[in-house]
Amino acid sequence: MHSPIAGTAAGVPFTALPPSGDGPAPLIVTWHMLDAPRSDAAFAAALPLNELPAWRVHLGMPMCGARMVDGSMDAGLALLQQDPLMSVLYPFVRQATEEFPAALASIRAQLPVDDGPIGVLGGSLGGAVALRVLADTDIPVFAGAIVNGAIRLRSVVDLFPGDYPYDAESEKAVDSLDFVAKADAIAGRAPLLVVSGELDHPALRTDAFDLVDALGERAELLSIPGLAHPLADEPGIEPAPQLPLAREVDAGLTTWFRRRLG
């Protein structure tokens, strides 16, 4: 097994895991959670997908991992307390999606990946990035997957204490990241695996079922007994040994992407 490769692609930190063997190989790109594992390196350790004959390049989300302010999550947590939607959730997804085309070009220039369609995978808020790549870009994708994904951003906002004070701008922002409403666009792009922990937040689990129903034959649901929202123990910033439930998720993702890789 090769060692992880840490790097930067057009300003975006990444942890890359090479496939066994030589020569160009397909590429699967991931975006991590804001819950544990909350960095690209930690997400790579939680879901390494080691059995896949593909490069797995785990990208860092804004203000996480190598982009933490002063080496901690404190600044991001302060923004969450200030305004979870317009200071963190929406701008993080928007930035991660908008910086991806340049990051992808840089990855292709740095690593021996082939030039075919890519796989995309996201956990929690990173799931919204993967879904937005499918729904709102024309980047060729052969398959996608999300794990306890942020499918309707409004459901994520509702997890925070109190009633969120929506106005016209924030209503537009939160509705732009409702991927059940964008199911037709997603279905036209690539098949999707929706992984949902049976102990995930009830609203997020409902959204998972709704998205699978809306996508019809273009989606599969993988329900994981005993899995809550996180995939790693706190603090979830540094790589840690893979938890048994994360190993189960890893196995399901590996089966899914291996089928799509042929």
Précis, in short:
The protein contains 10 helices and 8 strands. It is of the alpha/beta class. Strands 1-2-4-3-5-6-7-8 form an 8-stranded mixed β-sheet, sandwiched between helices.
Keywords:
262 residues; alpha/beta; eight-stranded mixed β-sheet; 40% helix
Task: Explain this structure.
With 262 residues, the chain is α/β, with parallel strands linked by helices. The protein has one domain: Rossmann fold (3-Layer(aba) Sandwich), CATH 3.40.50. It contains 10 helices and 8 strands. The protein has helices at residues 40-46, 74-82, 84-98, 100-110, 125-136, 153-157, 168-176, 183-187, 202-215, 244-261; strands at 5-9, 12-17, 27-31, 55-59, 118-123, 141-147, 192-197, 219-224. An 8-stranded mixed β-sheet has the order 1-2-4-3-5-6-7-8, sandwiched between helices. It is globular and about 55 Å long. The model has no long low-confidence stretch (mean pLDDT 95).
